[in-house]
């Protein structure tokens, strides 16, 4: 009796080299999403950023963040123009060849600004501790101090008020030099209902305000040709 092999060919790794894809006169925005339900706002953030002239975006997603949106959501929001990079792209099925581009280094070279939105409690702790155990944390550890980097925390109220959170934020602000914005309810701002049902501190800064950080920093101008948003309601405000 003969058998037919049903094995599939190994997927080919995606290549990315900053020098080949950076475009002069454009703003290169790197959006990092981590394991908070606020990652569901990533497609909205991407679509709004793309409504500005001369703005290019790459997304780096932790494995946990893709529980809340899909690569297809980003493709829909961007018209297929934005790539979502994951651990599999850095450590794929093929053997590394000396001299090949290293993804987290190339993404670092590409970015003019980095937004960690949302930043979960887990990723915050990893950043403060210097861990490099996935594409997100490896990229952040490799960033140049001159690259503007913004953290937008998002977590349950008790996770945010945990004593270690304040220590982690102090390291991130004072030693690493990232700008931390939010969460809602912190530093005298108004809290809101969280996804878990609690009300208080912890919700991520509104996605439109996150986009506003980039717009203000780089003086971005709206593209008059951008069509109205058509993203489905399940990921809207």
TrEMBL record:
GO terms for cellular component: phosphopantothenoylcysteine decarboxylase complex. Residues 28-217 form the Flavoprotein domain. Keywords: Coenzyme A biosynthesis. One of its GO terms (biological process) is coenzyme A biosynthetic process. Signal peptide: none annotated. Pfam families: Flavoprotein. This is Flavoprotein domain-containing protein.
């Amino acid at each position: 009796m003969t058998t037919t092999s049903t094995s599939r060919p190994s997927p080919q790794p995606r290549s990315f080299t900053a020098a080949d894809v950076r475009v002069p006169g454009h703003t290169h925005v790197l959006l990092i999403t981590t394991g908070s339900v606020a990652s569901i706002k990533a497609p909205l953030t991407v679509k709004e950023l793309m409504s500005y002239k001369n703005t290019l975006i790459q997304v780096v997603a932790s494995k946990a963040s893709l529980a809340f949106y899909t690569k297809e959501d980003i493709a829909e929001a961007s018209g297929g123009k934005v790539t979502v990079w994951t651990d599999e792209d850095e450590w794929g099925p093929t053997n590394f060849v000396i001299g090949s581009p290293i993804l987290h280094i190339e993404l670092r070279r590409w970015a003019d600004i980095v937004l960690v939105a949302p930043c979960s409690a887990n990723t915050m702790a990893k950043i403060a501790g210097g861990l490099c155990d996935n594409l997100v944390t490896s990229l952040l550890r490799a960033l140049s101090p001159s690259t503007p980097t913004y953290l937008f925390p998002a977590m349950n109220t008790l996770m945010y008020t945990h004593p270690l959170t304040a220590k982690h934020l102090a390291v991130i602000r004072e030693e690493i030099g990232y700008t931390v914005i939010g969460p809602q309810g912190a530093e005298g701002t108004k809290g809101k209902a969280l996804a878990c049902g609690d009300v208080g501190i912890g919700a991520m800064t509104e996605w439109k305000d996150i986009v506003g950080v980039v717009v203000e920093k780089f003086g971005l101008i709206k593209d008059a040709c951008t069509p109205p948003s058509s993203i489905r309601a399940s990921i809207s405000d």
